[in-house]
Each structure stands twice: as structure tokens, then as C-alpha cells.
Amino acid sequence: MSTPSDQIPPSPPPYEPTGPVATNNDDKNIAMLTHLSGIIFSIIVPLIVWLVHKDRTDKTYLVGEAKEALNFQITVLIGYVICWVLAFVIIGAFLTPLLWLFNLIFCIIAAVRVSSDGSYRYPFTLRLIS
């Protein structure tokens, strides 16, 4: 017979940065600002950072963080479009502030993780740009 403790799934492994490590503090600061900029500027700043540095081999860390921020902001933008459509049946009006708060919290978490650990991967994100 199996005991209830045998049926408990194992806990997930602790967070470990998977991308390349920042080569200097400038890249780390730009990556942190790229994540924070999503609160106000949505996809604009991550898109600019990604487009400017995507072909440079010495900026792989910055490109990876910009792509991560851009994918998350595209996902949030899709969420806003869905909330706008659902606003016609009232529920979207309640979901829009929750989506804004979700964006705010995860942008701040990403900026803190990037400044301390060096890398962050957003949960619940469509990976459209790879």
C-alpha cells in the first residue's frame, strides 16, 4: 500500500540563472532598466534594446534579458487587448487593473533579480521571440 507521503510530488528545484552572466555592470544596469521600463513604456524599450544589440556577440546577456522582457510585455499587451474586448461584458473592466498590477509586480521582481542574480525568466510568458 502506498502512504500519502509517497504521493506528494517533489518540490521544484531552486531558482538558478540559466542565461549568460553579465560581463559588466553597464549591461546589468541596462538589463535592469529594460525590465523596469515595461511598467510605463510597454514593449518600446525592450524592443529598442533588442534591435540595437541583437547582432553583437559581446552583448548576449543583454540581448537575452531584452528578449525576455519583450516576450513578457508582448504577453501583457495581448492580455490588455483581451481585457478591452471583455470590457464589453463588464469583466474586462475588473481584469485590467489586475493585469496592470501583475505587470508592475513582475517587472519589479525581474529588475531586482537581474540586479542581484544576473538573470530572470518570467512565468506565464509566451516565448514569441527566441
TrEMBL record:
Location of the protein in the cell = Membrane
Where are the bilayer-spanning segments?
30-52, 72-91, 97-114
What's the superkingdom here? Bacteria
Compositional bias ranges of the Pro residues kind: 7-17
InterPro entries for this protein: MamF_MmsF
Q: How does it sit in the membrane?
A: Multi-pass membrane protein
Q: Which UniProt keywords apply?
A: Membrane, Transmembrane, Transmembrane helix
Query: Where is the region Disordered?
Result: 1-21
Entry annotated with the keyword Membrane? yes
Q: What is this protein called?
A: DUF4870 domain-containing protein
Give the organism, scientific name. Luteibacter jiangsuensis
**High-level lineage:** Bacteria, Pseudomonadati, Pseudomonadota, Gammaproteobacteria, Lysobacterales
